[in-house]
Amino acid sequence: MIRSWFGGRKQDALPEELGPLGCAIGGALVIDTLGLEAALAAGDPAMGAPEGGNFVVVAVGTARLDGNSQLTRYYDDEDRIVQVIAPPGGGFEAIQDVSIYRPWDSVVPASRSEWERWIGHRGLVGAPEYDADGLLYSRYWGAGDDHADLVEFVETVSDGESSREIQQKCMLYARRIGSVEEMLLLNIEQDLAHAARREGASIEFLIGYGLGAADVQRV
């Protein structure tokens, strides 16, 4: 993921405040997960409750979802993501959704037939349910029992020194744990740079949870 795109954390930070959280690359967020930890304590989360505290931003990604919504992703050097959805150019007060994701697994299909099994017309990604090592998730995007098309967008990711365009094809699943939903994001990532295209793509599995805007503060 982010470390492989840029080759590691950069030392020189830019002071520009980025996205709805107004956090610069090299700056930090403080994440309060106490409420989430309490809600998950009686359940069986796939990776345990996410850790709170300081989150040092090493890269920021943006993607326009539609005319009224823009996705901003703040990455740290552990490939964790604080994801924010807000109107384009909107500040903290305009935030519509905040969530935190952590990488869980990664798959690199080795052949066309393997890709077809994952993301083909009746592939695993986009089916109404997804069984992840015995944990059953229901599709969050797309109602009904039919196979759903993947959501596609291009994310521009910068580490303050260079930027990359990453094509994303994804599907979101969820399961209920107590009073919260555990999200499973299946994300097919393809760097659009010519050299990277030759290296192929991967399927990333990320586990996430919703947060309140007040749970994420810039230091």
Number of domains: 1
Please give the alpha-carbon distance between the first and last residues: 25 Å
Output the strand order for the largest sheet: 3-4-5-6-12-11-10-9
Q: Kindly report the average pLDDT value.
A: 90
Count of DSSP strands: 13
Q: What percent strand?
A: 35-45%
Q: Tell me the quaternary state.
A: single chain
| Structural class by sheet pairing and helices | mainly beta
Description:
- The chain is mostly beta strands.
- It has one domain.
- It has four helices and 13 strands.
- Strand 3 and strand 4 form a beta hairpin.
- The model has no long low-confidence stretch (mean pLDDT 90).
Short summary of the structure?
The protein has four helices and 13 strands. An eight-stranded antiparallel beta barrel has the order 3-4-5-6-12-11-10-9. Strands 2-1-13 form a three-stranded antiparallel beta sheet, with no helix packed on it. Helix content is 11%, strand content 44%.
